[in-house]
Hints:
This protein has about 950 residues and is mainly beta.
Amino acid sequence: xxxxxxxxxxxxxxxxxxxxxxxxxxxxxxxxxxxxxxxxxxxxxxxxxxxxxxxxxxxxxxxxxxxxxxxxxxxxxxxxxxxxxxxxxxxxxxxxxxxxxxxxxxxxxxxxxxxxxxxxxxxxxxxxxxxxxxxxxxxxxxxxxxxxxxxxxxxxxxxxxxxxxxxxxxxxxxxxxxxxxxxxxxxxxxxxxxxxxxxxxxxxxxxxxxxxxxxxxxxxxxxxxxxxxxxxxxxxxxxxxxxxxxxxxxxxxxxxxxxxxxxxxxxxxxxxxxxxxxxxxxxxxxxxxxxxxxxxxxxxxxxxxxxxxxxxxxxxxxxxxxxxxxxxxxxxxxxxxxxxxxxxxxxxxxxxxxxxxxxxxxxxxxxxxxxxxxxxxxxxxxxxxxxxxxxxxxxxxxxxxxxxxxxxxxxxxxxxxxxxxxxxxxxxxxxxxxxxxxxxxxxxxxxxxxxxxxxxxxxxxxxxxxxxxxxxxxxxxxxxxxxxxxxxxxxxxxxxxxxxxxxxxxxxxxxxxxxxxxxxxxxxxxxxxxxxxxxxxxxxxxxxxxxxxxxxxxxxxxxxxxxxxxxxxxxxxxxxxxxxxxxxxxxxxxxxxxxxxxxxxxxxxxxxxxxxxxxxxxxxxxxxxxxxxxxxxxxxxxxxxxxxxxxxxxxxxxxxxxxxxxxxxxxxxxxxxxxxxxxxxxxxxxxxxxxxxxxxxxxxxxxxxxxxxxxxxxxxxxxxxxxxxxxxxxxxxxxxxxxxxxxxxxxxxxxxxxxxxxxxxxxxxxxxxxxxxxxxxxxxxxxxxxxxxxxxxxxxxxxxxxxxxxxxxxxxxxxxxxxxxxxxxxxxxxxxxxxxxxxxxxxxxxxxxxxxxxxxxxxxxxxxxxxxxxxxxxxxxxxxxxxxxxxxxxxxxxxxxxxxxxxxxxxxxxxxxxxxxxxxxxxxxxxxxxxxxxxxxxxxxxxxxxxx
Length: 948
């Protein structure tokens, strides 16, 4: 076994060092090695190749199926966020938001199945879901990231797709006593000139310091990273097919769309990240480390253009063009009963997100064989999203005292698949006429959520050095999580008409300007871009009203209603609430180190026991009956509702999660790896919120509904991995197979004969109906989100190849490549009817083919590379008026970077992201039914890195 361990050490050095770059120099050994020792040629490896080989070492000697990325130092990764860096790994792809990677998909599964940690600690999200938003994490503050595709018992549970573990590094493990890094880059977006008031320049700036003190017993790391970038896009968004009408006159209904949007998006994004780490190691047997990570991401954006509302089944349709049974073109005009119109939109959105992560870890070698690790952590995320919408409509004449909405609305359109559609409006000239356009409605829809988890963890390991067992690990973790969401709303006016009680606003020349579409969108009509602040100050001279949780004057439960409210907005309170989740986990794991058929075998086997206690606040509509628990509920504005009974709903359950990881060394260069495990992913935290409503009919039948449910259980899966890995002096080749048997999914379902009382609802035994007759209540149907038992498999193959061509002549010895390909398929089929007809789609996030290729070259200070990321069509969500699940077209994203190292301290960089200006394109089930066509532009970076 000692010879084997020596061989592994030698191979590790070999893998990290035998790729000879042009700048590499052989280092002579300090002394002649003993005769029975293997002599190793030590090569100095720098730059991108160095990062690749460290990643290969981590994969090779890891005890699970994993992929890693590694930086030379803080600030060395070139990417805007850690998400961009992760997408270069095999089997990993990204969903782009605003043109940049924000959510990652692993092995064909969406971000909701990805669990993430920072320095081994669970991270919560600003999204209201489980998956973190990776663009919240600056790459400059991350030293390394690992993607665990197979779990082991000691890892925190939660990732059916995989677990992403981010690390900020350890100062005391650095070679240098002190290091300082400065990274400065200017940025330019080449599509910003197409967006009115769009910013075209931005910057990235980061500082980091790492130092060791007191004879290398005290380490300090400090980091700051700032990103300021314009956010620009021009987009067409098709809206869901939510209606039916016989438009052909054949006696059968066709599916009709709600409409479409054509808009300019602009604004700015500012992210400030902070890192602090203090590490104390007074002697070899004990260390104490504290970490702080804070990221503040502020987005201020606007959307300007127009939204077309076809008007539903009451609208007039002429010359319809069909795709099967769905209308994709024709002439749509307003009837007396329809609400057909064109809305000029001038929206302002503000999103202030913060992520905080704190932790203290003590690591103590009690004796030569026993190690104890104790960790306390806190993770907190908050999001304050303020959606401000300003609508304008076309009047017959805006100059008169009592303007009238122009009902003469006619729209002609023809979708063009994954290309921009043909569109015509009879009111086109009016869209840019200040004497025709009037502001008709303003609405503010804030959504504030917080998510935090406090955890304590204890891990104990015992070295056994037995013929089979190398060590045994046991541990426990307890966490308490609380999620809170708070909705509020203010509305004034109407987006479909002019109200006398809340009259529209006449625009003046200083409030608006004419905007023309450019480039690919230049054929579309001009429109008025309205200055939101000037318009609101004119409309509300006494001050802009603030959003409140308004119950609405029409609600009979209101004691102090808003007399100006035009709609019942009690949904804002029903969609507010809290979720609680307490988790107690314990594990035992044996680490294996033995031989089979004279071949070294390593790995681990263990089981993790997880008990979850989850609950959520609930408001049950009991019709104001105090005998059924009705209470006066007062919102922030002092408005009172007495219709609801507050309560707590939830349940407790336990999972046992066994896992096995085996690594068999067939030769010194080849490894056969096998893994099997049972895994879980909990539902999105916001889907555990209770927004339940129940009703009791006149005969006593109790029925209810909830789009979410505090009774949802985790997704469960059994998974298997098999990989063959070949490592050679200048690279590696890997082939892997994986299979996931998903046991259940979350679907909306109606449960007949639901036990309302048993579930905690305040249901009376008897009611008095409208005729004054007592009726005994009985259980009816409850429609809610449930875990169904219809799962299915996800399976695939991954191929990866990495090589530095060190055998080439001197000029080309620094040439290298990193290639990966993954094929994924699934029997899971989801039903999507947003395109009208019910169509089976693939599992959300699944691309059958994902290809990643990087070609790099390093020579005498030159460091250049080009990266291509391709993914075939997949299903994901897009945002229109509401979130829509659509099919996304395949995409190929190219990035390029060139750097020159002037000396040991200074490096200049030039970088282009999205080199070919690849847009995002989506469709509803079939390409003919256009979803999103969004163009972001290229991002250019020029800057320098200075380190010493």
